Each structure stands twice: as C-alpha cells, then as structure tokens.
Input
Amino acid sequence: MICFVGTSFAPKTFRRAALIKGIKLTDDPTKASVVFVSEDTPTDNEGNRDLDIIRKLVKHIFGKTMAPIVLTSQVSPGFTRSLDLPIWCQAETLRIKDALQRALNPEQHIFGCEDPNAPLPKALLSYLDSFPAPIFKMSYESCEFSKIAINMTLASQVENTNRLAKAAESFKAEWEDIAIVLAHDRRIGKDSYLNPGDWKQSPHLLRDWRTLNG
Output
C-alpha cells in the first residue's frame, strides 16, 4: 500500500491518480510499502518558501515508518541532503489546469538519490510500473534544481509570449490565430505557454524564481 502525506493540492491529485490505477492506499504510514511526503511547500507573497514545515513533517514521518520515504514537496537545492536521512526526493511537475492527467501520464520520473548508482527500492519501482515513463536518477541537488529549471523555462515562455503578443498587436495581427499556428509546430507544441499573462501570479513559478534569484 502507498501512503501520501499531505492535505494540499499535490497529494490529493496523486491519491486520485493512484486510485484510478487501482493502487491500494493507506493513510497510516506504518502500514505503507512506500510513503510520499507531498505537502505543497508554503510560500509568502514574494515566493519565499517556509521549509521548516516540510522539514518537521519529513522527520516526523521518518520516525514512524520503516518504508522508503519519497519527498515530492517543492524544496530548494540542498534541502534534502540537509535532512541527513536515507530518503529519496522526486521532482513533482504537476500543473493546475491538467494536474490529474499529468499525474496519470508523466513524461518522466525524476529522482534525487543519496547514491544515484544504487537501485530504487522494489516497492517504489512496483508503484512506478503503474505510471510508465523514463526514470532518471541523479543527486539530490540535481533533482531539486531540475524542478526550478523546468519552471523557469516555462516562465520564459510566458515572457516571450507577452513580447510577441504585444508586437502582433502593433502589426494589427490576431494573437489567437498565431497561437494556433505555434501550437501546431512540433518544435513548439500544443502544451507551450502561449497565453499572455503575468507568470509571477503563479505561486509555483514565483517560488522557484525567488529561489533562483535569492
């Protein structure tokens, strides 16, 4: 059985995906074969993370179970290693508008490991078999930073979209038409961020921008 610890958006989404796949769940970490600590990391209005909450949660769970623990909360590089616990971290790449579909059909599984050359626990691999995708193992820091790199690349897409949409308006071109063309170009794709807007309104993108820029 799998245990997802947390009451926020991410763990709720992971639970729904697991149930759809027919995976048995438990709310008791002492009965789980794998425990995911998936509580969304709280941030303030400027994107600063409150990591003390996640730190206390991981240590609390570690003291209650012998099962492998996987941290999927959005933490800054160096956090998992600072815990000094034999756990794994996973870069969670959900998106609000299609989170369940992304949970059910991930492009990849990104794991930070104390020893990237060591195999993942069998119980964890068994769980991942229900969500077929390439598995990439790396250091804690590489895994943690990969989440930031993904989000900052998405933020740059929004900024580019804003620039192009403004230029299109000056030429009396319709951005809605152009967005359709861009979405159909395989080098760009239908999942690109082609809607103009302020990416800093996204707490997830703002959080990683704050971590990157200090």
Observations:
- The chain is about 45% helix and 10% strand.
- The radius of gyration is 19 Å.
- Helices lie at 9-20, 51-62, 79-83, 99-104, 122-128, 140-170, 175-183, 203-213.
